[in-house]
Amino acid sequence: MPVSTAPWKKRRSIALSFTVQNDDRTVATVYREADANLIVAAPEMLAALREADEVMCSMGLHKDIVIIQKVRAAIAKATGGQS
């Protein structure tokens, strides 16, 4: 399932929870504002990780460098194993 790149917005609901929305569609409902903030930032963080991976590869860095492994593991986790 592709990740939406549209801006996600956080809204406080009456039930002491936070709703994360993409346009008019609810993406998630959480009870801690920190969780809502993280979810709202997720599409931008994924894009930044993908860009960092491309830049590091274009610089000729080797796959065995720990930071590249961490970046790729985070991308895989965020995409369900699909880069």
Work out the helix count.
Answer: 2
Strand order of the largest sheet: 1-2-3
First-residue to last-residue Cα separation: 11 Å
How much helicity do the residues have?
Answer: 40-55%
Globular, elongated, flat, extended or rod-shaped: what is the shape? elongated
Strand content: 15-25%
Residue runs with pLDDT of under 50 for 5 or more positions? none
What is the total number of structural domains? 1
For the secondary structure, the number of strands is: 3
Topology as a string of helices (H) and strands (E): EEEHH
Task: Compute the CA-based radius of gyration.
Answer: 16 Å
- Structural class by sheet pairing and helices: alpha+beta
Q: Report the major sheet.
A: 3 strands, antiparallel
Overall mean pLDDT stands at: 85
Tags for this entry?
alpha+beta; three-stranded antiparallel β-sheet; 3 strands; elongated
Verbal overview:
This protein has a 3-stranded antiparallel sheet with strand order 1-2-3, with helices on one face. The protein has helices spanning 33-58, 66-79, and strands spanning 8-12, 18-22, 25-30. Strand 1 and strand 2 form a beta hairpin. Helix 1 packs across helix 2. The model has no long low-confidence stretch (mean pLDDT 85). By secondary structure, it is of the alpha+beta class.
